[in-house]
Design a protein that fits this description.
alpha/beta
């Protein structure tokens, strides 16, 4: 469906701890990119699954999963140092409710995720591709948002956060135009943006944006029942 990638794989050295975690834990917590992934089989239970696209170093992912052991979290990431770090966090916190797929998120959704199956999507600080000629690379754009709506179950949610004003406005427009998604904060005092969700941890990346005087914009859309 998509010939343009929304990411580039940036060179990054894995620390010894990240490499050890990747080498020793990936076979247990990483799901291979094969057709017809079965959530119940992967997690060993029928708890609802939230999918995070691009979890970075995975610290917020681990904190959210630790606070919600009754929920499952499937992280999609292509950056090996980040995967190694999340695996380290999984081991340190003794988490049983996280699995990882090391593959392009668009292809994962197209191939592996059944319709009406995901309880939610988390997309925290995706690459904003700020230059106009690169806007075509932005992840939160139709028809990708249509596919997210298709994969969400009724009442499921998409929660996106960005520290780029232009991307926030762009994403708000694209999600608002996506059939099946509704904005519970439309007409509110934040111009359609959501108030901060207290359960989402602040990361070092987010703090860097705040230090640069970037305004954090949060978007929260729900799939119609």
């Amino acid at each position: 469906m998509y010939g343009i990638k929304s990411y580039v794989i940036r060179a990054g050295r894995m620390s010894d701890a990240q490499k050890r975690s990747y080498d020793t834990l990936s076979s247990r917590f990483c799901i291979p990119f094969v057709p017809d992934v079965n959530y119940n089989h992967c997690f060993g239970n029928e708890n609802p699954v939230t999918i995070e696209i691009g979890f970075g170093m995975g610290i917020a992912t681990a904190m959210i999963a630790e606070a919600n052991p009754q929920k499952n979290y499937l992280g999609l990431e292509v950056h090996k140092p980040g995967i190694g770090r999340l695996l380290w966090e999984i081991e340190k916190r003794n988490l049983q409710n996280i699995r990882i797929i090391e593959h392009d998120a668009v292809e994962v959704l197209e191939t592996l995720i059944p319709p009406n199956s995901a309880a939610g999507f988390h997309i925290f600080f995706p690459d904003p591709w700020p230059k106009k000629r690169h806007h075509k690379r932005r992840l939160i754009t139709r028809p990708f948002t249509d596919m997210i709506a298709e994969k969400l179950r009724g009442g499921g949610y998409l929660y996106m956060v960005t520290d780029w004003e232009d991307y926030g406005n762009w994403a708000l427009a694209e999600l608002s135009a996506t059939p099946g998604l509704c904005n519970p904060h439309e007409g509110g005092g934040l111009g359609g943006f959501a108030p901060p969700q207290e359960w989402r941890p602040r990361t070092k990346f987010e703090q860097k944006g705040i230090n640069k005087k970037h305004e954090i914009r949060e978007l929260y859309f729900v799939k119609e029942q």
